[in-house]
Write a structure and sequence with these properties.
By secondary structure, this protein is an all-alpha fold. The protein has a domain of 53 residues. α2 packs across α4. The radius of gyration is 14 Å and the shape is globular. It binds protoporphyrin IX containing FE (HEM). Protoporphyrin IX containing FE binds next to α2, α3 and α4.
């Protein structure tokens, strides 16, 4: 799926994160937990390529979510 296809989801997702009290500093530990889980569950299938794809995806999503969250916090 391309970014364009699911970018309309970013507002409701970011709004939900703000509602749950998620702050910028939470994205790092969540990334660590996500990557630990992926490594544990995928084992040998967690190849450097897979790791790289997940890293790019998480960084993209987290960036968008942080931005939208910061805007929502400013507007509140
Ligand atoms: C790439 C970053 C993230 C994405 C795309 C994401 C996406 C989502 C989505 C789609 C939901 C469901 C929203 C709903 O209730 O309609 C959710 C729930 C939630 N997220 Fe995130 N999230 C991200 C990062 C984080 C971070 C950093 C935290 C901080 C600890 C967090 C905490 C939560 C919590 C507490 C819920 C509610 C879980 C529940 O209903 O039991 N998320 N997230």
């Amino acid at each position: 799926m391309t970014w364009t296809a699911w970018s309309p989801l970013r507002k409701p997702w970011a709004a939900a994160m703000v509602r749950y009290g998620v702050q910028e500093q939470h994205y790092g530990p969540v990334a660590s937990a996500l990557f630990m889980t992926l490594k544990q569950e995928l084992g040998d299938d967690f190849t450097p390529e897979v790791k790289c794809a997940w890293t790019e995806t998480y960084l993209l999503l987290a960036g968008v979510m942080k931005d939208a969250g910061a805007k929502a916090n400013k507007a509140a």
